[in-house]
């Protein structure tokens, strides 16, 4: 995003006072208050769905929300000369959640549990924007891991990353197969269908970068663009996994997060079982491998090597943590 992007603000019924870069976007002080102008890669229809959801949540008492602002023509998206889409949303200044601060982490998880209580909505019988069946996702990921393994195995000149990948592949591939089998044997289908039937939605991208502390215990959750109907524990899984990776899979940290969530929204036994299955899948290993395969395979970056070394180093701690669940 560059300064030319600000030209799209002329399509809104407001006066721009000042603008500064922030988070790959522009944070704008306007005659209508603080707004954020950001790139948008989704459809106008999804933008409208998200806006209606946030309006519904606000009417139920959830605040603050980063609702989209309609332009003079009543549209939520604007396009520049290059046909890049932008969205203008309400914005609230705050500090980002500190992943090393246990109080921040607990409050973020408590806030997620409360958020899930508001994210129950069925505007129509047809369920659009439903999450993909996790069984299909894992089948695809497992095929991709095998494909990457075969590709690397046949290479004559191997990088340090490739040698380490081959060394660790069997261990993580077995974990992936075991998790997929456990998911098949669990009550996943019923849990998934019940979530859709009840109209439960996930934020879709709940991480420290989208959680802001505005003041004492007031939290602003941003960027609902990836929201959709699914098992809400998926949000908890994503946040827990990222925090645990940063905190060396500390059982104490994990216990604090689950306790904080349960205090606001008690977890059923099958939800805990589902969370454990999700955490048992080596998603980080798949992500690192997929990144390598889709970039320059001939020269894996030092960053990919660093990530692979870190996750192999943490593996024993991850296994111990899973034993506590």
UniProtKB/TrEMBL annotation:
The keyword Cell inner membrane does not apply. Residues 27-240 form the Aminoglycoside phosphotransferase domain. Keywords: Capsid protein, Virion. InterPro entries: Aminoglycoside_PTrfase (IPR002575), CotS-like (IPR047175), Kinase-like_dom_sf (IPR011009), Spore_coat_CotS (IPR014255). PANTHER family: SPORE COAT PROTEIN I. This is CotS family spore coat protein.
């Amino acid at each position: 995003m560059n300064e030319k992007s600000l030209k799209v603000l002329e399509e809104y019924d407001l006066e721009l006072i000042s603008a500064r870069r922030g988070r790959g976007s522009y944070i704008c002080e306007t005659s209508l208050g603080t707004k954020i102008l950001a790139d948008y890669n989704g459809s106008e229809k999804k933008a409208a769905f998200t806006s209606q959801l946030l309006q519904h949540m606000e009417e139920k008492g959830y605040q603050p929300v980063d609702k989209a602002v309609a332009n003079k023509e009543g549209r939520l998206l604007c396009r520049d000369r290059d046909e890049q889409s932008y969205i203008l949303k309400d914005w609230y200044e705050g500090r980002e959640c500190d992943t090393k601060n246990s109080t921040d982490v607990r409050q973020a998880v408590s806030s997620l549990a409360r958020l899930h209580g508001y994210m129950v909505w069925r505007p129509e019988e047809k369920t659009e924007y439903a999450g993909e069946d996790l069984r299909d996702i894992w089948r695809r990921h497992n095929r991709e891991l095998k494909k990457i393994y075969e590709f690397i195995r046949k290479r004559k000149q191997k990088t340090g990353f490739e040698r380490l990948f081959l060394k660790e592949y069997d261990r993580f591939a077995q974990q992936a197969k075991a998790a997929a089998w456990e998911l098949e044997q669990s009550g996943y289908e019923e849990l998934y269908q019940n979530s859709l039937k009840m109209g439960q939605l996930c934020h879709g991208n709940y991480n420290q970068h989208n959680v802001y502390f505005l003041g004492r215990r007031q939290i602003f959750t941003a960027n609902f663009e990836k929201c959709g109907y699914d098992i809400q524990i998926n949000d908890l899984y994503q946040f827990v996994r990222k925090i645990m990776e940063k905190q060396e899979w500390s059982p104490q940290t994990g216990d604090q997060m689950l306790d904080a969530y349960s205090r606001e929204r008690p977890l059923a036994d099958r939800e805990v079982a589902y969370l454990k299955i999700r955490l048992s899948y080596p998603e980080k290993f798949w992500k690192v491998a997929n990144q390598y395969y889709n970039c320059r395979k001939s020269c894996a970056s030092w960053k990919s090597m660093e990530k692979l070394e870190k996750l192999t180093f943490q593996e024993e701690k991850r296994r111990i943590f899973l034993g506590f669940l």
